[in-house]
Design a protein that fits this description.
This protein has 108 residues and is an all-alpha fold. The protein is built from one helix and no strands. The chain has one helix at 2-107. Residues 31-100 form a coiled coil. Keywords: Coiled coil.
Length: 108
């Protein structure tokens, strides 16, 4: 009877060992699959980050270009306003000369 118990214990230990072995194999396969999924997710996240960075650089480039255009437009506006102001001064001078000319002719 003692021998029978020992045999049953060995059989039981053998079954537990096989069960543990299969459980460990299943856990390993699950971990490998999880690692694979995590790597794929990391890759997708990195690609998304790269795309966002690329778009940000494009936006920054457009913003810089817009600022340069705005600066050029401001310079042109200042130049036009200065020209207009100079033109008004010349017009006033011409009007003053015309008045002097008209007064001169009237006094003659």
């Amino acid at each position: 009877q003692n021998e029978s118990i020992k045999t049953k214990n060995k059989e039981f230990d053998s079954k537990i060992d096989r069960l543990l072995h299969h459980t460990l194999i299943d856990m390993r396969e699950s971990l490998v699959e999880s690692k694979k999924n995590a790597d794929e997710t990391d890759q997708m996240v990195q690609e998304a980050l790269d795309e966002i960075e690329k778009k940000n650089r494009t936006i920054d480039s457009y913003s810089q270009e817009a600022l340069q255009i705005q600066e050029e437009n401001d310079k042109q506006l200042i130049s036009v306003m200065k020209f207009k102001n100079d033109r008004r001064k010349e017009e006033r001078k011409l009007n003053n000369l015309m008045e002097i000319f008209v007064e001169s002719i009237q006094t003659l």
